[in-house]
TrEMBL record:
<dbReference type="InterPro" id="IPR043128">
    <property type="entry name" value="Rev_trsase/Diguanyl_cyclase"/>
</dbReference>
<dbReference type="GO" id="GO:0007165">
    <property type="term" value="P:signal transduction"/>
</dbReference>
<feature type="transmembrane region" description="Helical">
    <location>
        <begin position="143"/>
        <end position="164"/>
    </location>
</feature>
<dbReference type="Pfam" id="PF17152">
    <property type="entry name" value="CHASE8"/>
</dbReference>
<dbReference type="InterPro" id="IPR000160">
    <property type="entry name" value="GGDEF_dom"/>
</dbReference>
<dbReference type="InterPro" id="IPR052163">
    <property type="entry name" value="DGC-Regulatory_Protein"/>
</dbReference>
<protein>
    <submittedName>
        <fullName>Diguanylate cyclase</fullName>
    </submittedName>
</protein>
<feature type="domain" description="HAMP">
    <location>
        <begin position="172"/>
        <end position="225"/>
    </location>
</feature>
<dbReference type="InterPro" id="IPR003660">
    <property type="entry name" value="HAMP_dom"/>
</dbReference>
<dbReference type="InterPro" id="IPR033417">
    <property type="entry name" value="CHASE8"/>
</dbReference>
<dbReference type="Pfam" id="PF00672">
    <property type="entry name" value="HAMP"/>
</dbReference>
<dbReference type="GO" id="GO:0016020">
    <property type="term" value="C:membrane"/>
</dbReference>
<keyword id="KW-0812">Transmembrane</keyword>
<dbReference type="InterPro" id="IPR029787">
    <property type="entry name" value="Nucleotide_cyclase"/>
</dbReference>
<dbReference type="GO" id="GO:0003824">
    <property type="term" value="F:catalytic activity"/>
</dbReference>
<keyword id="KW-0472">Membrane</keyword>
<feature type="domain" description="GGDEF">
    <location>
        <begin position="275"/>
        <end position="408"/>
    </location>
</feature>
């Protein structure tokens, strides 16, 4: 765009200068022709008075040394040719001599693109004795102007070419920071690396733009770091809240909310893979007596110790949860057979039944267990939990500190 604007401006300037040169040069030639015609008229005026045609002819031939002269003619007041010189065959006069009254007033000039004609009255002591007609060709002037214009056009073409090369260099140098800034912006948008910075090469508009861009990157980097830290804190707090929501605050075991979700998940996995799993419903014996006789602090200590003992005998894949109060549940996934769950129930009862002393006082704590199997006894969480709960009550009626299977009589 800069090159186009520069080219149009230079071409317009060239056209205006060429036109002005043509009109100025033509005006100077017209003026020179008028002066020459007036001088020649003064020279031939005595010859007109004395009717000396040979002398007038010699004077015209001497005047005809001018290269652009086409015709010079002396006419009598009546319009007859007194003397004449013509280059080659020439062309006839474009008009006849003006009336003498008009000739006395002023000279007459006719100018075209090809030639000019000057009509000058010949006076002797303010008396018009004839008319001098002078015709000159403008071909030489036109050729000179065209030659000058061609040279100027060539110079302008060279100048435009030089300007084009210079503008390319300047453009590359001026746009290099913008191109680098654009590439950096694309890299940052793609990689999300806000630690990058653009180099400031010059203290101009582009340099100020680069500085503002770097300031923006710095703010984004700080904002991103703050956001990342905030997200980490929120994530950590969320994990803590989730742990609090899914953990029993006293025993540290998973609570009922966690148990319900895990039971659903293990049941779905067992059904999908056709695996045997079991659910134990565990209720502590004589826990109300401990609370009433020895206080809630002793009861809390009993719950913590019983939880530790039960956790020590279960498998690493089993899920032991406290449902609330003195009720616990144990999810047993991927069992090889039902007897494995029964053996584990007996070990758990034995572990709880070991003498438990709090503040030097023996606590009469035992455990009663109800067993239910999936998919043997139930295939959904609610039915399986109800089946294990009913089995636990059967074990309670059987004398406590024992276990029962759902819909079966165990030992």
């Amino acid at each position: 765009m800069n090159l186009q604007l520069l080219s149009v401006t230079m071409l317009l300037t060239f056209a205006l200068l060429a036109t002005a040169t043509w009109y100025v040069a033509r005006g100077r030639q017209v003026h020179a022709a008028q002066l020459s015609a007036q001088l020649l008229a003064n020279s031939v005026s005595p010859m007109m008075v004395f009717a000396d045609r040979p002398a007038a002819q010699i004077e015209l031939e001497a005047f005809s040394r001018r290269s652009d002269l086409l015709l010079v003619q002396v006419q009598t007041p009546a319009g007859a040719v007194f003397a004449q010189w013509q280059a080659g065959s020439g062309a006839p006069l474009s008009r006849i001599a003006p009336p003498l009254a008009a000739a006395r007033l002023a000279d007459a000039t006719s100018v075209t693109m090809q030639e000019l004609e000057v009509w000058a009255p010949i006076r002797l002591k303010d008396e018009v004795v004839g008319v001098l007609v002078l015709r000159e060709s403008l071909a030489g002037l036109r050729m000179a102007v065209l030659t000058l214009s061609a040279a100027a056009a060539a110079l302008i073409a060279v100048a435009i070419l030089i300007a084009w090369r210079g503008l390319l260099l300047v453009q590359r140098r001026a746009l290099a920071p913008l191109v680098e800034l654009s590439n950096l912006a694309e890299h940052i948008a793609r990689e999300r690396d806000y630690g990058k910075r653009a180099a400031v090469y010059r203290r101009d508009e582009v340099g100020r733009l680069t500085e503002r861009f770097n300031d923006m990157l710095k703010r984004i980097e700080v904002w991103q770091a703050d956001l990342h830290q905030q997200l980490e804190q929120e994530q950590e707090a969320g994990q803590q809240f989730q742990q609090l929501a899914h953990r029993d605050s006293l025993t540290g075991l998973p609570n009922r909310l966690f148990f319900q979700g895990e039971l659903q998940r293990y049941l779905a996995f067992s059904t999908e893979h056709d695996e045997l799993m079991a659910l134990m419903f565990i209720d502590l014996d004589n826990f109300k007596t401990v609370n009433d006789k020895h206080g809630h602090d002793a009861g809390d200590a009993v719950l913590c110790e019983v939880s530790r003992r039960m956790a020590s005998v279960v498998r690493s894949r089993d899920v032991l949860c406290r449902l609330g109060g003195d009720e616990f549940a144990l999810i047993l996934p991927a069992l090889p057979d039902q007897e494995a769950a029964e053996h584990l129930a007996q070990r758990l009862i034995d572990a709880v039944r070991v003498t438990l002393t709090i503040n030097g006082v023996v606590m009469p704590i035992g455990a009663t267990v109800g067993l239910a199997f999936a998919p043997v006894d139930a295939t959904d969480a609610t039915a399986l939990l109800n089946a294990s709960d009913q089995a636990m009550y059967e074990a309670k009626r059987a004398g406590k500190n024992t276990y029962r299977r759902a819909h079966s009589a165990g030992t």
